[in-house]
Amino acid sequence: MGAIRLEKVKKTFGTLDVIPGVDLDINDGEFVVFVGPSGCGKSTLLRLIAGLEDVTDGKILINGVDVANEAPAKRGLSMVFQSYALYPHMTVYNNIAFGLKMAGESKAVIDEKVQNAAKILNLTDYLERRPGALSGGQRQRVAIGRAIVRNPAAFLFDEPLSNLDAALRVNMRLEITGLHQELKTTMIYVTHDQVEAMTMADKIVVLQAGRVEQVGKPMDLYNNPANKFVAGFIGSPKMNFIGGDYAKKHDCHEIGIRPEHVAVSTESGDLPATVKIAEHLGAETYLHVNAEGFGPMTVRATGEVPLGEHDKIWLTPEQDRIHRFDANGIALGKL
Amino acid sequence: MENKQTPLGHIGFSIFAWIVGLLIFFPIFWMVLTSFKTELEAVSIPPSFISFDWTLENYAEVQARSDYFRFAMNSVILSVGSTLVGLLFAVPCAWAMAFNPTKRTKDALLWMLSTKMMPPVGVLVPIYLVFRDWGLLDTRFGLIMVLFLMNLPIMVWMLYTYFKEIPSDILEAARMDGATLPKEIIFVLLPMAVPGIASTMLLNIILAWNEAFWTLNLTTADAAPLTAFIASYSSPEGLFWSKLSAASTLAVAPILIIGWFSQKQLVRGLTFGAVK
């Protein structure tokens, strides 16, 4: 069981309110992602849940029990660090076994659990190696193995894929998602990468400056962002924001339209534009354009599109995909 | 950044370094050489370098006159004892400063180091009186206490700079794995810090071994280490240079040998953290 609830959790460093007050519910077995820009407090929030930082105020309930004043070891959680934080002087076997050793388990039980974890993570051939002799991906798996073996109420991941190259990141993303499906244990995952958030999460918590901007399923956040910040953060490339007369036509201060919701044509459309830079990715093309009267915009076209600098095109935003925002950046409903 | 030194500059610098090294080493060299001379040759002008009658009579006399082994054992007990006691305090202290710093941590560290700037003679009288009243004069226990306290700031500083290089998230991982604070230090921190601890121990042993002020003032016979052994060969008049050199060579030989074999550790310990 791994239901976690945060009630008015506050963290202050000196006079700085890093987290002014967070309320959050995490259901048992959920994969929750804390996402946000650097310095938004997502890692701090994770460390508060882990017990590596003390809360200034508030409650952290794990399965109904307030653990805000408990040591990390007593909370029944496991953590995978960004830098893996493996014990360099111990073998892979002892790294994974360390938590069980601290819990006072017998040698036979330790051996069984370590061998099981090693099998799940394809580490059986590496058990006698030291971390220094492993690749980045292998080290990451040892860090995960160390977390799994303790059978925690929840796993905490602190940007675990940041140190890996792009290809390995994609593989490990799938592995972690597969692990979640297999173990069905609550996982709280911190990342600044919204692609990881969108692809892995059951629920995303978007944070900015210590405040929860929005909580919801990935597609809810994508289709119905609560404010301009969430709208601009979720989705890649970033949503286009247009003010002025075009926004007034939609009875709001600013409209937002995602690059993939703008039709591109060389013949006709609503808005004329000139291509400045074209990024050809094969499966899709990103066009960075200057829309007349609106300024720079990014639009996405499917497949290979033979357009380049100075080409004149027409843009037609999909009307039912337009997001409306007031002067404070709060989302307004559809017209 | 590429080293832009020319070959000539490189050779010039090497020659300069060798000259400095030889100058620093010269007193030791001369001391060892003198220990094999007769008293007369030791004071001869011009001084003889190689062409003299080499003799072992000084060593024989030093051995006959005093019990070298007892003084050497005291030196070992005092230097190793004060180092081990020092580590018991310095490790937790450096841990707290490195991994749980507060606003005042840097100030505390500077204050500790500043106590080393005060000449020991400034506190000789009060310490002597305390030792006298507590029956600690000429005791190994008393000397161990003085030496450990004297070198504690250096031990804390060295361990602190070493511990600061250890990533704190490894200790946090140990905490998440259920390690209590003592287990975190014993199973994770200390094994990772072995090189730093080894260099700290070596340096402290050397400093304690060579310490002369307190050992001469607070000991007479029972706890007297090799520093007192050497001092006993100084007399206000008369010829004594050869015997003094022999006694001195016997006194510094053990620590010179240890230092020679552990010089890599010593250099690493002293410069660790200074250069990234």
TrEMBL record, chain A:
Gene Ontology molecular function, alphabetical: ABC-type maltose transporter activity; ATP binding; ATP hydrolysis activity
ABC transporter domain span: 4-234
Family: Belongs to the ABC transporter superfamily.
Lineage of producing organism: Bacteria, Pseudomonadati, Pseudomonadota, Alphaproteobacteria, Rhodospirillales
Classification via SUPFAM superfamilies: MOP-like, P-loop containing nucleoside triphosphate hydrolases
SMART domains recorded: AAA
Pfam families membership: ABC_tran, TOBE_2
Keyword Cell cycle carried by entry: no
Gene3D superfamilies: 2.40.50.100, Nucleic acid-binding proteins (2.40.50.140), P-loop containing nucleotide triphosphate hydrolases (3.40.50.300)
Annotated protein name in UniProt: Sugar ABC transporter ATP-binding protein
Organism: Thalassospira lucentensis
Keywords, in A-Z order: ATP-binding, Nucleotide-binding, Transport
Any one GO CC term of the record: maltose transport complex
From TrEMBL, chain B:
Family matches, as InterPro entries: BP-dep_ABC_trans_perm, MetI-like, MetI-like_sf
Subcellular location field: Cell membrane
GO cellular component, one term: plasma membrane
Listed PROSITE patterns: ABC_TM1
Alphabetized UniProt keyword annotations: Cell membrane, Membrane, Transmembrane, Transmembrane helix, Transport
Family matches, as CDD domains: TM_PBP2
An example Gene Ontology biological process: transmembrane transport
Membrane-spanning ranges: 12-33, 76-97, 109-131, 143-163, 184-209, 240-261
Gene3D superfamilies: MetI-like
Top-rank taxon: Bacteria
Protein topology in the membrane: Multi-pass membrane protein
Domain ABC transmembrane type-1 residues, every copy: 72-262
UniProt record similarity statement: Belongs to the binding-protein-dependent transport system permease family.
Name of this chain's protein: Mannitol ABC transporter permease
The species this protein was found in: Thalassospira xianhensis MCCC 1A02616
